[in-house]
Amino acid sequence: MGEQSTMTKEDLVKLLKELDVPLSESTPRDEEMEEEIRIHYWDYIWEDLMASGEKYNMKVTYQVSVISNKPRHSKLLELKRKLNSKGLHPVIQHEYFPEKRRVHSFFSIEVLENV
Fold this sequence. Notes:
- The protein has two helices and five strands; from the N terminus they run αβββαββ.
- It is α+β, with helices and mostly antiparallel strands.
């Protein structure tokens, strides 16, 4: 799991859009696997925030998946630098799909959100 953050979902989406690559809030589909690079993100853990006076009501964990045609794609490295500059240091995992000639790099990140 990545490090806890005070980043909001809006901050995360803004940061991902700054990379200027195809972006989807969904799991990857086969027809999207042929692009040079594509980023997908989706939530998979919701945790209620119980403290009174909170601006946000949930801590939500997202998986961010970067699917690219080569290891250490420049946009993946840019994403890592952007997160690091905000004090976020997620553990990034990688897997290679030889039959599709694709690299899947992924990490989890917690954000604050109203669900």
